[in-house]
Amino acid sequence: MPDGSFSEILVVDLLGGIGDLVMVLPAVHALAASHPGARLRVVTHEPGAGLLRGDPAVTGVRVPADGGERDAVAAELAERRPDLAVTTTRYGGIPDLLRGSGARCVTDLWRRPPPDELVGDRYLRILAEEGVLEPSTVDPVPRLRLSTGERADGARALAALLGPTRRRPVVLVPEAGMAVKLWPRRRWKELVAILDGLGVPVATAPADRPLRELAALFADVARRGGVVVGGDTGPLRVAGASGARTVALFGPTLASRYGLGDPAATHLQGRPDCPYRRPTAITTQVCWWHADCPLSPTEPECMADIPAAGVAEAVLRSLTARP
């Protein structure tokens, strides 16, 4: 059982990525379920903040101005002091600020991570060990809460992309927020050619949609029994959290640590033997910020190492698997 009942819970996730927020969703939902009736507020960045608006577990969302992360946390504390504060964020003195509020705090969810434990599972295990959530409330799979109206809009949006077809579709997410996570364009072309040859309807996810609209589109991919394919990116994690089967392409990050945490996901790892990969300290990898790969002068070899034929095979297995 949790150590007492908390009525005001603050979760701070200011790592900046959409995927980072999706990975913390199971912890948000478990904290809310462990403390029924609590007000649970989140401080996080756009565009990920949009995923939480409308979530029945979340009372409010505060978005900091550029460079104003600490100020946003301070404003949230001043407006309503929490009795439990949890943060994934360690920069800017934010942990000290939370501890200074007098709240029960869990300020280091990154402590001593092993390379073979999923980040989201690690969060949940630490929170359970800290006694602030009830393990029986835990669902380790990230899940987005969408309204009936949003789902209907998503169905219309997907129909507009695919045209008249009753076959299970494949939706591609070729873009990534970091160059080091991009699967080469030639590989995408090869994959489309293979799927087209098999008569599989293929579309590309619109990159300019608000995240909740994109989530609703992915939810309809799930309803149709389709598959979403992409790299280790926020939108692919949104697809998985919307219920869609996914084929995830991992290169610089290790799937055993950064996988989607969803049994309906297939993870394909490029260059699993890369000597430069640092699973528990990815931002220190030589390739991370500028995609400068020591193994290839032209592109990240770990991503290029994933063959289109292997991805197509994984897609077809997912399309024919039982729900």
Automatic annotation (TrEMBL):
Keywords: Glycosyltransferase, Transferase
CDD domains reported in the protein's UniProt record: GT9_LPS_heptosyltransferase
Gene Ontology MF term list: glycosyltransferase activity
Coiled coil location: none
EC annotation from Swiss-Prot or TrEMBL: 2.4.-.-
Protein's name in the database: Glycosyltransferase family 9 protein
Source organism (scientific name): Phytohabitans maris
